[in-house]
Design brief:
With 521 residues, this protein is an alpha/beta fold. It is built from 19 helices and 17 strands. The structure holds nicotinamide-adenine-dinucleotide (NAD).
């Protein structure tokens, strides 16, 4: 890691805590923050982009105006694990505007925008020399060990306490706390050698070091201080629901993803914007006329298919769910299997399932020369990156960096490349979220809807967490409608008002909610 030493400031006393794995960073070092580049130019660039983004985020502006004076988040310690982008910077500063004490980390090793991290650390009133913002632990291109080090730092307040509330995206912060508690409850010391994969071994190593340094009763009191979590994405919500089914969820959760104004907007319209943005920034390849496969036709898959089709690509879909498959047919897509796509020589493969093992290393060994492979789902196991690494160790494929987050994987034993030579595939963002690894995620206006839901969820938890028990719930529909309402003026929309007679005729209140909970939009 090559971080400017000035980018990390010690907020507490010097430490004797051992470093964590090969990070060179002490686990309990009390670092004030850690970002790549806290130079005045980077801070100024980030601040300008934060100001521009705020104008495109009317929902967050409105919540600042509505709640700023009352300071409803005063007393809340909020830890966030969510892509440290410019739009997230606006969310963070909205939470602090409402009174919260916030610490932040990215939820993906490639998704940080370094100028966003720098400006958020400096804060609206601080400078590079005298930062007064929020402690952020994030930089683009972390190693996995650095990523988990960052996650722990964001969880630890300098006074030794932890968060009262969490904003999670994919559930990694929630996972770390739950695993820590479970090992303590079983009286078991985590053993990195028992990791199911590289990342799991790193998590176990971190938990083992926490136990060695802080003893066998660190996580239980820590978890008891967490009043609730609001979860951003489909994959994180799946994890939470599995925990409620197993009875292991430790604190209440709000499922932000399934607010209509999140999943039917961010997942759909966000990906419609950011998928081709990422492929083009990464490869500059022409998409028109190309055969593209989208695996999974849920919200993200629908947005991804639209994104590619808007470039006049020929888009086919794979699905396991007959309803989604039928939707794809009705939208004019062929529904095929990955094997069909391989036989037909597809040019681009995008995974959007939230499932694992969608594109295996064997699949990639059969793709046409220079096929582009990327994932827009949450984790890096939709594309079998571990299998490719295994083939690399066996000398069956070479990895060549074209530029960061763009790699040619050149197979050594195939013969369907140019003139009977081996072929290559181009893998983007090392199999991780391509729109955040190779581009800058979704545009501000879409993220405004998502993050207005996040802020409302944090306000709800701050007021009501204990009443919710250890459950996963969505925000009520009137708040979903409020989020939409706060964004309509940006489009010059002129909403029709129901008459009293009309409201009575269709059986809805005059001011909403306008739909029953079962309505699917
Ligand atoms: N990149 C982003 O910006 C972004 C934004 C939101 C969500 N996500 C992530 O994207 C993923 C998908 O989210 P979503 O909201 O679309 O979920 P979803 O449940 O709406 O859609 C997933 C679809 O994949 C299908 N599927 C599952 N296994 C499959 C298989 N083996 N082959 C083919 N199809 C399969 C499911 O039937 C489903 O229709 C999740 O991991 C989510 O966290 C990413």
């Amino acid at each position: 890691m090559n971080l400017d030493p000035s980018s990390s400031r010690a907020a507490g006393s010097p430490t004797t805590s051992p470093v964590f794995l090969d990070t060179g960073l002490p686990l309990f070092g009390n670092a004030g923050f850690k970002v790549r580049d806290l130079t005045p130019a980077t801070v100024a660039f980030g601040r300008k982009e934060l100001d521009l983004a705020l104008w495109e985020m009317p929902g967050l502006q409105a919540l600042r105006e509505e709640f700023g004076a009352a300071q409803p988040l005063a007393g809340a310690r909020i830890m966030g694990s969510l892509h440290m982008t410019i739009q997230t910077g606006v969310l963070i500063e909205t939470l602090t505007h409402l009174g919260a004490d916030v610490r932040w980390v990215s939820c993906n090793i490639f998704s940080t925008q370094d100028h966003a991290a720098a400006a958020t650390v400096a804060g609206p009133r601080g400078t590079a020399q005298k930062p007064e913002g929020v402690p952020v632990f994030a930089w683009k291109g972390e190693t996995l060990a650095e990523y988990w080090w960052c996650t722990l730092q964001a969880l630890l307040w300098p006074d030794g306490t932890g968060p009262t509330l969490i904003v999670d995206d994919g559930g990694d912060a929630t996972l770390l706390i739950h695993l820590g508690v479970e090992f303590e409850q079983r009286g078991e010391t985590p053993d990195p050698k028992k990791g199911e994969n590289e990342e799991h071994s790193i998590i176990l190593a971190l938990l083992a070091q926490v136990r060695a340094e802080r003893g066998a009763n660190f996580w239980r009191p820590f978890a008891a201080g967490v009043r609730g979590v609001s979860e951003e994405t489909t994959t994180g919500v799946h994890r939470l629901i599995q925990r409620t089914e197993q009875g292991t969820l430790l604190f209440p959760a709000i499922n932000v993803n399934d607010s209509v104004t999140k999943s039917k907007f961010d997942n759909l319209y966000g990906c419609r914007h950011s998928l081709v943005d990422a492929i083009m920034r990464a490869t500059d390849v022409l998409l028109s006329g190309k055969k593209c496969l989208v695996a999974g036709y849920g919200d993200v898959g629908k947005g991804s298919a639209q994104s590619l089709r808007n470039q006049q690509a020929r888009v086919a879909v794979t699905e396991v769910d007959p309803i989604c498959a039928l939707q794809a047919c009705m939208s004019g897509h062929d529904v095929i299997t990955v094997e069909d796509a391989l036989n037909q020589g597809f040019d681009v493969y995008v995974t959007a399932t939230g499932n694992k093992d969608i594109l295996t290393a064997r699949h990639m060994s059969q793709m046409k020369h220079n096929a582009i492979v990327c994932n827009i789902g949450h984790f890096d196991n939709e594309i079998d990156m571990a299998g490719l690494e295994e083939m690399r160790r066996n000398g069956e494929v070479e990895k060549i960096e074209i530029k960061p987050q763009v790699h040619e994987w050149r197979f050594t034993k195939t013969s369907h490349g140019p003139n009977g030579a081996p072929h290559s595939v181009i893998v983007l963002a090392e199999g991780r979220l391509v729109n955040l690894g190779c581009a800058t995620g979704h545009p501000s206006l879409v993220m405004s809807a998502s993050f207005t839901n996040q802020t409302l969820a944090q306000l709800d938890l701050q007021q009501n967490a204990e009443a919710y028990g250890k459950s996963v719930r969505v925000l009520p529909k009137h708040l979903d409608e409020k989020v939409a309402r706060l964004h309509l003026h940006k489009f010059g929309a002129n909403l029709t008002a129901l008459s009293g007679d009309q409201a009575a005729y269709i059986g809805v209140p005059l001011d909403g909610p306008f739909k029953a909970d079962a309505y699917r939009y």
